[in-house]
Design brief:
single chain, 302 residues, mainly alpha, DNA polymerase, domain 1, hpI Integrase, Chain A, 2 domains, 3-stranded antiparallel sheet, 4% strand
Length: 302
């Protein structure tokens, strides 16, 4: 059964261009589904098979996910993985009937991103400046670049040396679906990157062949998990709380840009959103300060 899953994952990566993170998540989800089918078959002393897995079996699996306390977003991803997989299996002729027919995704409440204020962002960005180690110079460059560009974490850690143009003040990154975009970056971010390249990275690098822009202490490309821990550490030292994540800076970038007068289309391009409806969620955040001012000032609002 896992061979079928691996064939499907290869199809996603090679033919559909899915990101590595999505492929890994789908692998975990589908392996979990395969284990559930194997356990249910063993209870009836039967051999597990995709072909024998019915719609009723899928409903039992979803009930099992509920009992295990998975949140709606996680369940929705697992359902999406199963739908794509069984559609692939039918198309390949491996099974006749799709057990996902007429099974919808779990309903999810629309959660708004939680940005930090401009002053909080400045406080966070200044934390690495208190140290002069190569790691601190790297961290300052990363934080400044995240806030200046609104890049996703995966995009930032995937940057190579040739992706940053110090002279023109922009960065090239590849988003979802390997779509390339060029993002202008603020002078402060350019200066911190330049300082890192001159004084930080050479002391971290172990091999001249390594092209990654941001390196860890072993001289290898910094991972998403590594960046996560770095930002968590600085957020804790500033007292901003454990809810601060690398994605917080992306949310804050978008919100602060719109509050500063940027138009929605420009922010959409900078964030690399395929649909403007994805960017529109930030408009709810940018009007909150207007509502607070209204409720505080208008005599009929009290």
């Amino acid at each position: 059964m896992k061979e079928d899953i691996d064939s499907f994952l290869s199809y996603l990566a090679v033919e559909k261009g899915f990101s590595e993170n999505t492929v890994v998540a789908y692998r975990n989800d589908l392996y979990q589904l395969a284990s559930f089918i194997e356990e249910e078959a063993a209870k009836r002393s039967l051999a597990p098979s995709w072909a024998d897995f019915s719609r009723q079996g899928m409903l039992s699996y979803l009930l099992n996910l509920n009992e295990r306390g998975y949140v709606a977003t996680t369940k929705a991803r697992k359902v999406a993985a199963a739908k794509s997989f069984f559609k692939f299996m039918v198309a390949e002729g491996n099974i006749k009937d799709d057990p996902m027919q007429n099974i919808g995704s779990p309903k999810m409440g629309k959660s708004l991103p939680k940005p930090i204020s401009v002053s909080q962002a400045m406080l966070l960005l200044e934390q690495p400046a208190k140290l002069s180690t190569p790691e601190a110079k790297r961290d300052r460059a990363m934080l400044e670049l995240l806030y200046a560009s609104g890049m996703r974490v995966s995009e930032l850690v995937s940057l190579n040396l040739g992706d940053v143009n110090i002279d023109s003040g922009d960065v090239r990154c590849f988003g979802k679906g390997h779509k390339e975009r060029i993002i202008p970056i603020a002078p402060r971010a350019v200066l911190t990157i330049k300082e890192y390249l001159q004084e930080g990275r050479p002391r971290l690098a172990r091999a001249d062949t390594e092209q990654a822009l941001f390196l860890n202490a072993r001289g290898e490309r910094l991972t998403r998990q590594g960046l996560w821990q770095i930002i968590k550490g600085y957020a804790k030292s500033t007292g901003l709380g454990a809810e601060i994540t690398p994605h917080t800076l992306r949310h804050s970038f978008a919100t602060h840009m719109l509050n500063g007068g940027a138009d929605l289309r420009s922010v959409q391009e900078l964030l690399g959103h395929a649909n403007i409806s994805t960017t529109q969620v930030y408009t709810h955040l940018t009007t909150e300060h207007i509502r607070r001012a209204y409720e505080k000032s208008h005599p009929r609002a009290k």
